[in-house]
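Lecture 7, part B: from sequences to assemblies.

Below are the input chains for today's worked example.
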Amino acid sequence: MAKVDTSLVAHLPLFAGVKPDDLDEILREARSARYPRNTAIFEQGADAQSFFLLLHGHVRATKTTPTGEQIVVRYVAPGETFGLAMAIGAVHYPATAMAVDDSVVLIWPNSAWPRLIERFPAIATNTLQTVGARLQESHTRILEMSTQQVEQRVAHALLRLAKQSGKKLDHGIEIDFPISRQDIAQMTGTTLHTVSRILSGWESQGLVESGRQRIILRDPHKIVVLAERTADSSPI
Amino acid sequence: MAKVDTSLVAHLPLFAGVKPDDLDEILREARSARYPRNTAIFEQGADAQSFFLLLHGHVRATKTTPTGEQIVVRYVAPGETFGLAMAIGAVHYPATAMAVDDSVVLIWPNSAWPRLIERFPAIATNTLQTVGARLQESHTRILEMSTQQVEQRVAHALLRLAKQSGKKLDHGIEIDFPISRQDIAQMTGTTLHTVSRILSGWESQGLVESGRQRIILRDPHKIVVLAERTADSSPI
DNA sequence: CAGGCAGTTTGCGATAGCGCAAAACGGGCC
DNA sequence: GGCCCGTTTTGCGCTATCGCAAACTGCCTG
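Predicted structure of the full complex, as structure tokens:
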């Protein structure tokens, strides 16, 4: 297996406060793997045996109801951890992880976790902070779903994606991985039909340019305005 | 200040893996305080200076939008921690905490946190697990808001409250603190009007008995059935 | 290069739940 | 015991959004 260069991961929040020498030791416990686009990394409900760090690509975490309805929990960007079931005391993965682009991940066996945080308590602290940040994002999402109209929620979702994984273009920001209307619907609690209608509308106003699993924000500023507009703001 | 008996808190998840002698040392760093019903413990956006452990009573955490709309993030039951802004790397409290009943809390200054987790790494691990559990609950809530009708969401919310803070009666379960229609609306992403209509309907079927800030589940089993019924299940 | 399929667009009718308004209720406080 | 205020109930019209159906499109594959 190709060895992972410590310099590539040393700056990640997960390893803040860990000495470079130690980092090497940590990485030796991991193996790396490549997942082609549209392959599952783990399935909701499966025994959690490993935890992951995304090095390259993009991963979508989804949660499914017994009746088959699904939401997108989040998109994982390079440098972020996922599948931390062990750390948060879960025996099974609470969500399904799928590579939406060809992706490369580091994989630690769960058995490494207790040893890791014993030797490097900073890792526990760092993880607590990331999980805490995700908790706050979830609360924000709940707040949005409770108080905003669909159009605003879609605007927020796109802006967040652009911030997390946007590729700056000469004229606009492109979301840097394949994403469908359906995916956006599952991020915002609506249907792909409604998302399609909204994006069509925006496209005709020149706010976005989009097509098959592809979205470019041509006028991010106006989308911010849309996102912040309250229901009773004056139209036009 | 009255000293807190270690035996009262020794069994809490927060202190799992901490030796009784050490516990005493931990508690000496805290002070306790009493908050009468309907008083704020901290406000969203304020500088986070302390973190809290609820000993007695009930606390409601709410999050408010710039435009004044509000959701209930969660209800805190005795034995649970809240206001962990420091632990998750937040400088300001992300929510407002209010005592919904006369409440007694332990309060640690944030400055105690780094020392605490250094001396007792188990506390960091335990906190990571509780925060992780809350994250999963949030995801479940998002899933429900995305896929279920209001009636089912209200059913789920009441069942959760009953489980967390239900007082078993001869015939049913009473939610053990004052809670209004408005509160339930803010937990489920709807309006107090709709909650009122739903509860009225249930009351006429003998599923619940309720009044001013008071709810008794008279037939929890049927409410479970309601909660699980999918939109396309046959009526009656 | 043709075909097929996944993803997207669009129309149209149905409706759950909102928003507003007003009345009824109940409990605590003086 | 009576008053007052916060809470709850209920009616009614409205509309954002869903749900279904059908057509369209662009990409990838063979």
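Note for the exam: Chain A has a mean pLDDT of 93. Keep this in mind when comparing with the next example.
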